[in-house]
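re: ur question from earlier - yeah i can do the single chain one, its not a big deal. heres the input i used so u can compare w yours
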Amino acid sequence: MTGTTPGIRTRTGPDDRTTVVLITHDRRAELLRTLALLRRLPEHPPVIVTDNASTDGTAEAVARGFPEMTLLRPGRNLGAVGRNLAVQRVRTPYVAFCDDDTWWEPGSLRRAADLLDARPRLAAVTARIVVEPEGTEDPVVRELRESPLSGPDWLPGPALGSFLAAATVLRTDAFRAGGGFHPGLWLGGEEELLACDLLRQGWWLAYAEELTVHHHASRLRDPTARRVLGLRNTLWFTWLRRPLLPALRRTGHLVRTVPRDTASARAFVRATAGLPWVLRQRDPVPPELEHRLAALERARRDSPARRYVG
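and the output i got, formated as tokens:
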């Protein structure tokens, strides 16, 4: 179900329901471009930036060029937990995440707030992602659009089992109730654990085709380092929340299918090193939720957006 929700009147001008939160580290040029685009949004949202200990003058440039925005400087690289720090300052009912190389299309924040206003059990809406400068859809969009999960008919689009922090508006209270991003994961697929815990609490997540985020991938990103973190965190999530047999099957599948190279080996070594804390915090989901996680796992095996390459 997409389109305009009955009973909701389209509004224009500033909108005080959503705060934009983003984290950054040593990507000054990309961040300044993103902040300039956010400043021009018709919703005029408050913006909170957590600078994760940049050494390239990022914080100084933000303070000088965007004094109306809130700048947090924790003094060390907190990874995704930098978003938690920012959400502590949020006073609006909704929080929109984006990265320093993504930005929201004008009107999407207002529409996301409308969707959440009308659905009290909806925790988050994830937007369609357009890759710039080509203007093409990110491959992950097909996965979102074709989600195998079923949900109530009041959802604004397909039910999801996770979300993308670079393209999602969340209910602030739900984010806090779910505990935010887990500090143990740091960064890289950190959304999956929070999403699982939100679903466990009875919240719903959905894809909303009518929302758009633009992504102009930073040339400064290290795809190999991201792959190591992503694979490590996939393994940790698997052992934190999946029951024993599914966790064993998932681990075995990854062992058989990921590239046999140094990056994969590093990821497995790091995942193994973290097993003591993972097993101490292990809390498998109930059967109904495991059924949904298994359906997502099967669907993702053929997704071009879920390959551990780079």
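The chain has twelve helices and nine strands. not sure if urs matches, ping me
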